[in-house]
């Protein structure tokens, strides 16, 4: 059983998944910082510094924290926008790389043969 587990754990896709989870956690910190440290203060300036999280209603002596719910919705949309922008930049960089790779024309069969003939003739003349 130990050998089977070891074989399973050492397979490439399990290790790839573990790396993805760790990178995802690190990326979460980046996105949260972008939202909390950049977007939220800017949004606060736009909406006049309103903090939704303190809004609540008392119903039969129970506090309903609907403001926190609103705050989480705003955070969700800001995180979604941040992720969209990050993915858009990454996609643009990948497209630019693909364009660069596509810009290098691959020689046709004729060009390859002519190059080989040229190289052979050059070697004979030496």
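-> sequence recovered:
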């Amino acid at each position: 059983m130990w050998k089977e587990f070891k074989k399973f754990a050492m397979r490439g896709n399990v290790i790839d998944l573990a790396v993805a989870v760790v990178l995802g956690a690190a990326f979460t910190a980046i996105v949260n910082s972008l939202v909390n440290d950049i977007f939220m203060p800017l949004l606060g300036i736009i909406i006049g510094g309103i903090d939704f999280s303190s809004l609540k209603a008392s119903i039969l002596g129970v506090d309903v924290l609907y403001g926190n719910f609103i705050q989480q919705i705003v955070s969700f949309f800001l995180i979604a926008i941040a992720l969209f922008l990050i993915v858009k930049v990454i996609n643009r960089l990948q497209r630019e790389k693909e364009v660069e790779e596509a810009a290098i024309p691959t020689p046709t069969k004729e060009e390859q043969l002519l190059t080989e003939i040229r190289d052979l003739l050059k070697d004979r003349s030496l």
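Residues 51-126 form one domain.
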